[in-house]
Every structure is written in C-alpha cells, then in structure tokens.
Amino acid sequence: MSAERIARRIADDVFEYQVETSRGAQALAAQLRALDLAEDVVAGLDTVSLRVDPEKLTALEAALASLKPDEAGFQLESETIELSIQYGGEFGPDLTEICYQIGLSESAFIAMHLERMHTVEMIGFTPGFSYISGLPDGFAVPRLSQPRSRVPAGSVGVSSDYTGVYALAGPGGWPLIGRIQDQLFDPDSASPFRLRPGHRVKFKAV
To answer: What are phi and psi of 173, to 5 degrees?
Structure first.
C-alpha cells in the first residue's frame, strides 16, 4: 500500500503514528483495529492516526506494507441512508450564489446532488458533523469569508468537494444549500447520531 507515514515519540512508552492515504481511510482504520497492534486508531478524511507501543512499531510497519486496498474485504460494509432535503430558500440561503460560482442552474445543481451516491468519510469539527464525499471530481466551492455564528441543525452545506451535514446547531462556515428534514440526533439512543463513517447517503428532495 502506498502511503506517507509519520512517526514521533510522544512519551517513553508510546509513539504517535500517522498514515496518509489517498483512499479508504475509514476502511484502513478498520483493518488496523483488527490487527490489534495500536492502542488507539482514529481515521480522518485522508489520514489514520495511531498510538503505538514502541515494541509493536516494527510489526505495525510490516502490516502496513502488506495491506492491499483492492483485496476483498478492504471496503467497509455499510447501509444506505436516505435523507430528505429541502433545497434553497431560507433552508439553503447560499444555493443561488454557489450555482453562479460554478456555472450551473439551481435545478441542474440539485439534480446532480440528488443523482449521486454519497459516502460519510468522517465526523468532525463539531459533534455529529458529517464530511460526505460524492461530488464530482474538480468540484470546488470555497467556505464563507465570514462564518455564521449559528447554523440550524440539519443544515447541509458544500465546501471544496464535500457535502457537510450539521447534526446539531452551532457556528459554521460552509455555504448552505438546504436542510435535512429527518431527525439526525437522538440523545436517548445508544448511537445518538444517525450518520456514521462508512454510511452511504442518498438525498431525496422534498
């Protein structure tokens, strides 16, 4: 497997080890957890960070060299989640400007967004916020120059080539295209956030 690796000692008995990969960070993390060579494994968009006992570092290096992303079982199994979204207007106040920037009509943008199968790559920067891949190659929308102090729960934005879904209300700088009408957070559930890394997402207009 081709990857750039960075290791640094953060204590006498532990290394912080980071693997940069252009594909399948969540699936790679799942394989590394199964090897049981790291104390902690955390996947990002294109990196996997690990805390490693120095005595296991050589074994980890060997395991990374032998992993083959194309082998059966490397990809995460996942259910498909259908989410109802209302585009534009008060729910997507930046949709018109985004379409102007990329040279698409609003109806063409919505059709493109609906027809694609999307994948939750990671959860970050606020609780439950989903980074979701699936937009076309070369798609690029910059973040807002001045972030909003409060974005309503369920809001859907786009930035760079990702769709972002705000499970909870809070500040945010992603241009907003719409809002999810389904419940994304249930505090009484054992898994309170509906979306998790590896989920495939299909949007449905309402």
So the answer is: -120, 15
**Which pTM value belongs to this model?**
0.73
Tens of pLDDT along 141-159?
999 999 999 999 999 999 9
Q: How many other C-beta atoms lie within 10 A of the C-beta of residue 11? A: 9
Question: Are the beta carbons of 63 and 28 closer than 8 angstroms?
Answer: no
* Distance between CA atoms of residues 188 and 92, nearest Å: 29
The three-class DSSP label of residue 76 is coil
State the Cα–Cα distance between residues 4 and 199, nearest whole angstrom.
26
What is residue 187's DSSP assignment?
A: T
88 closest CA partner among 155, 41, 138:
155
Cβ neighbours of residue 186 under 8 Å, at least 6 residues apart? 192, 194
Alpha carbon dihedral 42, 43, 47, 53, in 10-degree steps, equals: 30
Q: Which of 129, 123, 99 is nearest to 113 (CA)?
A: 99
Q: Is 31 exposed, middle or buried (0-12, 13-18, 19+ CB in 10 A)?
A: buried
Closest among 161, 103, 174 to 135, alpha carbons compared: 161
Give the tens place of pLDDT for each residue, 89-121: 999 999 999 999 999 999 999 999 999 999 888
Total residue length of the chain: 206
CB 103 within 8 A of CB 197: no
